[in-house]
Each structure stands twice: as C-alpha cells, then as structure tokens.
Design a protein that fits this description.
Protein name: DUF1275 domain-containing protein
Keywords: Membrane, Transmembrane, Transmembrane helix
Number of helices: 8
Strand order of the largest sheet: 1-2
InterPro entries: DUF1275 (IPR010699)
Structural class: mainly alpha
CATH topology: Growth Hormone, Chain: A
CATH class: Mainly Alpha
Distance between the termini: 23 Å
Shape: globular
Largest sheet: 2 strands, antiparallel
Organism: Pseudoluteimonas lycopersici
Amino acid sequence: MGVQLPRWVWVGTAALSSVAGIVNVVGFLGFQHQAITHLTGNTSLLAASLATGDWHGARHLIAAMAAFVAGAALGGLIVQDSTLRLGRRYGVALSIEALLLLLAVPLFDAGSVMGPVCAALACGLQNAMATTFSGAVVRTTHVSGMFTDLGIMLGHALRGMPLARRRLGLCMLVISFFFAGGILGALLFAHFGYAALYLPAALTGITGVGYVLYRQRQLHNGVSA
C-alpha cells in the first residue's frame, strides 16, 4: 500500500474537490451553460461550434480553455514542483485562486465572458497545484480519471490482484466531494445566483490559511519540508 498519505493531503483534496464541484455546476447553470473544469466536454462543444459556424460561442470556449491552461501555467510557476510536499507555495496559489473566484462573481453578473475566464483561471491553477504525492496522482477539478482508476482497480480485483487501498480511498474522496460540491453549488445558485461562488472563494482562502498554519507548526516542530 506504500506510504500513507498525511492528513493535510486528505483534507486539502476534499476541500478543493468540493470547490471544483461548486464552480463547475455554477458554470453549467450560468448564462452560457458552459463547464468550467470539464475541458473534454468544452473541446467537444468547441468542435461543434466551429462545425456549425457559431463563432461567438467558439470564441468564448477558446477563451475559457486558454484561461484554464494559463491558470495551470501560473500554478507551475508558483509551485515549481510536480510532487506535493510541505514547503511549497500552496498558500500563495490558494490565495490567488480565492481572489480570482471573487472577481468572477461581478463579471458573471454583468454577463461578461471574463466571468468564466476568471473561474477557469482559478481551476487551472488549482489543478496544477495538486499533482502527485508518493505516487498517488491527485486531481481535484475533474473525475474522469478517478472513475477510470476505479474501473482498473475493479478489473485487478477480479483477477485476484492486491487492491490499492490508498488509491481507492483517494478516488472515492475526490468523486464524493466533487459530487457533493455540485449538489451544494446547484442549491446555492438557485437561491443566490453567481454569489454562490463566494463559498468556494472562502473555502480556498481558508484552506490556504490553514495550510500556512499547518506548515508553520510542522516547521516549528522540526519536521523538514
């Protein structure tokens, strides 16, 4: 089963998966009915828009997809590592994500394409920030890979192979909290509209502050980063 994942990885993964679930649902229910974190679907929508001559929709999709990539690039620039470990600048990245989500609210309300662009920037940054820990791939803004891994593990189990319990737990955690975030996001959007994004903005901000405090405590206790 390998190295056990520390508590901060589990808590951070759950929080960020729920954030992505909320943001993605708000995008679906919003004025463009466009996913924020689901680039596979947006790529298909872009292909359909180009095929039907919907240049307006195509421009919006291209902008949102480019923003996700730009956010991932920003995440790589800030974190500068492909492996989750204490000592990296996750607090800075989470703070920027929170600010982007806060900025997206008035832009969404104004019907501006910059609303989904800011939200996609935030999600791209988040996804680049959470990559791997001890060989366990951590992705928090989409669940296709997690469902694929569940299928692979099911196939392995049917062959009598050892079950990767850590990976199974991580998959179920991401799927469950992404789904729960989606339900919560839909309920909040029905009552508060785009102001529903204030919750994921707060969650990322709180997670960032919590991470900084946890890191400081670990360093104070002499735990190396």
